[in-house]
Structures are given as structure tokens and as C-alpha cells.
Design brief:
single chain; 11-stranded mixed β-sheet; binds iron/sulfur cluster
Length: about 280
């Protein structure tokens, strides 16, 4: 599938043959992005614009940030606020070896969990992620890729060779909604999910439930149908839409697209999980 110029521009990967990835931030002991206690690496740059995104500070690609006037610092880019440029956030370029060195300090805590690479969109920097995962597997650590499924499929296959688990977002059940609320092509997402199945990589599908937007029975039924059509599916997670990111949007001078929607309650998630279970038990 053709990639946009923004997608082609992402990452700094071939400087004198050294692969580097732009990292937005690290979370040393995460508990929600895969099994067990995990070290999470958030990468900088995402081609999508999901209406409920919690991390708009990971959107901008470093090349675009620099072109807009964000200033470079040693190995990185300065944070928003220092120069007041919207979309300009902190990001630092690391080699996979440098990141592994950081992670290994936490090995005693994550040896029964692992490492998750998230975003932004991790598949925008496939050479870096493949290199990182290869080294981590060599260290005996479990690797999880948290992705929207958008990216070059051939390069994604190179990443999946070293991936123990894919955490894939299935954001909407209909292509029109994908386009409208994320700026994404749903067929590209489904092609990525197909690839995980072909390569036999265990799959968790995650769906953020926004009341009044994508929680109608027909939406949830279709999300369940698509998810369970994959033989490598291990889990389908319904996640509640939250609004705790609104202050981040305010700080960045951006409008939160779903500010008028209610957050999703735990009770609503339980209700929809029950609905999905009842559909499965009828089969
Ligand atoms: S894919 Fe993830 S990081 Fe990118 S806009 Fe959507 S929610 Fe945000």
C-alpha cells in the first residue's frame, strides 16, 4: 500500500549504517500493555489522528518538528513550551543497543513480563523496532508490539519475526468511521491483522469504547466477529474511553475532538463484555 510522504520521512535509520529510533519516553514498570510487569518504550511519530488519542505529543515526526522550527539538542529535540511551537515535543534518538542497556537494569522486575514498544506508531520505525526486539529476545525477554497496524507490510513482517505478542487496536468496525475519526484506511489495518495470523504471532485486539460513538450493539458485534475470525487471537479487550488527556490538549493549544462525549464507565464495559460472551455462547 502506498505510504504518505510523512510515513516515508519517519525515523532516522541509516546514518552511517547505524539504526536509530526516535523515542518519546520510557515507562520502566508498566502494568497494562501486555502480560506481566513491562518496560514500555514510546516512540515518536504517528500518521493517524485518532479523535480519542491520549498522546497527541507523540504525533509529530521529528523531521516535521525540525522543519517547523523546533530546535535540536544533543541527540534530540526540545520540548514544547521552550519555544511555544505547537506539536513540538521532546524526542531523543537512540540505537537499539542503547535502549537495551537501559532495559537490562530492570531485568529482575520484568523477566516474567517483558518489553512493549508503543507509540506514536511503532511501525513507522520498523528497522529500529526489529533491531531492538531481536536483541531483547536474545536476552530472553518477551517482546510485545502495540500498534494501530498502519505501516509498510513488508517491513512489519521484519518486525513480527522478533515479536512474541501483537497488541493491535481495532478502533472502529466500519471503514467510514476509521477514515472519519482516525484518518486511517481500515483495509490496511485488516491486512496487518492478516499478516499476524499468517506469521503465527499471538494477537490481542483492543477496542476503545466511546459511549454514543462506537458502543452500539452492531458495532460491538462486528468488532467481535472480526476479532474472532483470527485463529491467532488470544484476547479481545474492551477499553473504556477516558478524558484525562484533555489537559494535555489544552497545554498543546489543541482541541480535543471528543470533548463532548462522556467517558465510558466500568459498568458499560462489563455490560458489553457480557454481550460479546452471549454472542459467542450462541455459536
Ligand atoms: S494510532 Fe495511537 S498514537 Fe496515533 S493517533 Fe491513534 S491513538 Fe494516537
Amino acid at each position: 500500500m502506498e505510504m504518505s510522504d510523512t510515513q516515508k520521512n519517519s525515523g532516522i535509520t541509516h546514518e552511517h549504517g547505524v539504526v536509530r529510533g526516535w523515542v518519546h519516553s520510557f515507562q520502566s514498570l508498566g502494568a497494562v500493555d501486555g502480560p506481566g510487569v513491562r518496560f514500555v518504550v514510546f516512540l515518536q511519530g504517528c500518521p493517524l489522528r485518532c479523535a480519542y488519542c491520549h498522546n497527541p505529543d507523540t504525533w509529530a515526526f521529528p523531521e516535521v518538528m525540525i522543519a517547523k522550527g523546533c530546535s535540536g539538542v544533543a541527540g534530540g529535540i526540545t520540548a514544547a513550551g521552550s519555544n511555544g511551537i505547537a506539536g513540538c515535543t521532546a524526542a531523543v534518538a537512540y540505537t537499539p543497543e542503547e535502549v537495551v542497556k537501559k532495559i537490562l537494569r530492570f531485568k529482575p522486575y520484568i523477566k516474567n513480563g517483558g518489553v512493549t514498544v508503543s507509540g506514536g506508531e511503532a511501525l513507522m520505525q520498523p528497522e529500529f523496532v526489529a533491531g531492538l526486539f531481536r536483541l531483547l529476545q536474545r536476552e530472553g525477554l518477551h517482546t510485545a508490539l502495540d500498534t494501530s497496524g498502519i505501516g509498510d507490510l513488508k517491513k512489519a513482517a521484519d518486525v513480527l519475526k522478533y515479536t512474541n505478542l501483537v497488541l493491535a487496536d481495532l478502533k472502529f468496525s466500519e471503514p467510514e468511521d476509521y477514515k472519519k475519526y482516525c484518518g486511517a484506511d481500515m483495509l490496511q489495518v485488516l491486512a496487518f491483522l492478516d499478516l499476524t495470523e499468517t506469521m503465527g504471532v499471538p494477537l490481542w485486539i483492543r477496542h476503545v469504547v466511546v459511549p454514543g460513538l462506537n458502543d452500539m450493539p452492531e458495532n460491538i458485534r462486528e468488532i467481535g466477529r472480526i476479532s474472532h475470525s483470527y485463529t491467532n487471537l488470544e484476547k479481545l479487550e474492551l477499553l473504556p474511553f477516558k478524558k484525562i488527556c484533555m489537559s494535555k490538549y489544552d497545554e498543546m493549544g489543541m482541541e480535543f475532538g471528543l470533548k463532548d462525549y462522556e467517558a465510558c464507565s466500568a459498568a458499560r464495559i462489563a455490560e458489553l463484555e457480557g454481550y460479546l460472551a452471549s454472542l459467542r455462547s450462541r455459536k
